Amino acid sequence: MTTINQTNSNILISFLCAISLIFSACSESDATSNIEILYPQEHYSETLDGRMILLISKTNETEPRFQLRDDSKTCQAFGMDVNEWSGSNALAFDAESFGYPIRNFNELPSGEFYVQAVFHKYETFNRADGHVVKLPMDRGEGQQWNRAPGNLYSTPQKISISNGQLPKLQLKLDQKIPPIEAPKDSKYVKHIKIRSKLLSDFWGRDMYIGAHVLLPEGWESHPNVKYPLAIMHGHFPSDFGGFRTTPPDADLKPEYSERFNVEGYNKIVQQEAYDFYKTWTGPNFPRVIAIKIQHPTPYYDDSYAVNSEAQGPYGDALTYELIPYIEKQFRGIGEGWSRFVYGGSTGGWESLAVQVKYPTEYGMCFAACPDPIDFRAYCLVNIYEDDNAYYKEGVFRKTLVAGHRDCLGNVDATLKDMNYRELVLGSNGRSGQQWDIWEATYSPIDENGYPKRIWDRLTGEIDKEVAAYWKENYDLAYIMKRDWAKHGKDWEHKIHLYCGDMDNYYLNNAVYLAEEILSETTEPYYNGEVDYGDRAEHCWNGDHDNGNHISRLRYHRMFIKKYADRVKKVAPKGADLTSWRY
Predict the structure, then answer these.
(1) SS3 letters for 267-305?
(2) Residue 374 in contact with residue 567, Cβ under 8 Å?
(3) Is omega for the bond preceding 524 within 30 degrees of 0, making it cis?
(4) 89 to 20, 40, 167: CA distances (angstroms)
(5) 405-447 pLDDT, tens per residue?
(6) Which residues pair with 445 in a beta bridge?
(7) Cis peptide before 149 (omega within 30 of 0)
(8) What is the DSSP string of 523-544?
(9) What is the pLDDT averaged over residues 535-541?
(10) CA–CA dist 349, 336 (Å, integer)
(11) pTM beyond cutoff 0.90
(12) Which pLDDT value is given to residue 40?
């Protein structure tokens, strides 16, 4: 039974709570209504679509736009969509915009900070499927919001924040990221860019793909020799990195690598590149054409090398347009057995994916630290059995799912953190980051033409219908098991997997599951290789003698030799296995 005093007390508490909410709303409104964004008319004459990102950092040693990250060292960011913005009007930053790692303006700590605004420009695509979507076109930078040529940003300003209140701010987008100069051809390295008919038809505008081509020693003096093609998959390469014809710069100032905890890592990188040049041009190294593919999309720095609903036929474009073009231009053998693929992380997944999806078009794959190749271990999420990606839930409590660890298991970011950072950078899968590109690759599209979410980005609730679509189309381990009777002979001797058992993103868990499937294959047995590095972190690629900071720089010399040693297992009778070994 409720007494009168209890009733009056409840009324008073409700009244005080209402007053508190009003003041809280006013505080939030005050914090954001003071922020106006302007851009000089000379930068753009048309109206703008895109994403406005407001960044707040404690230091300005590097600009705030370069300080957003998954761990505790991150700056603060808020993001909002902008549609048809005219430069003649100041843009008021939205009071309800989503923030990371702090969700709301009125929760910001007090103190002195630096603030900067970045505008990531979108363009309109009229796709062949009938959908009209607004997305950021790559402009030569590899789909990086804070480095994309043409994007506008403000000069960082120092401000004081008190109790979640920002001062009245007018941020002028007075800076514009300049164009990127295209790399130049040399004796050994050539650069190819072609218009893809398949992709242009899909996107409703001219779309290009390309590659950086490293020619073998003696290519010009052996005009009758045709060569195997070594295809390295991975993130957007600005040039054929890891190859230089001169020793390290004598005046190079040593730089510390936070990732590898190594002093002077920039000098190590240059020395390794020079050593590779000496190996490449020296005796007893297999003479092949090596390429790094460039295939950025409006969603990421590369397409993941497969066909998908949201991005179009990138797998077919690379396999049937770009690679034959390169082989014709530079005397490649041009047969499936003579093409082999390798790469790490994204490139590891792509290497296995093209071998699985194009069984006879590629002769061997070497997939290091691949992105999840079995979605029962989509990092630490089983998308088929788990209900929520962010939490492991029990009756009485729930635990956040880890997203990133070091070699000792110390966690510095949760999966929720990583997804929330991307949500600040773009809605509808447009952040240009990792979790969004997985959806852009694996998901069907929604009613607006954007990728369907595998889980609700705010709550983590998994969509089982989307998960079922992923399984049938992009779960590589499942597809190999499902289709082994059909394609097993085409996959025999071709599949090689490598992963550190302390991979930072828990990618080794999916490799364990894939290994179980491969180990049970019969008629034929897969006859490949699966190997693990003890306490090795992300990027381990099968090198038991060197640390990741070294072995990650040696993909070409490692896997080209592996292919040359094993090619006779996949080459047809009578294939030329000698003329290119001069």
Answers:
(1) HHHHHHHHHHHHHHHCCCCCCCEEEEEECCECCECCCCC
(2) no
(3) yes
(4) 34, 11, 21
(5) 999 999 999 999 999 999 999 999 999 999 999 999 999 999 9
(6) 451
(7) no
(8) SS----EEEEETT--TT--S-S
(9) 94
(10) 19
(11) yes
(12) 78
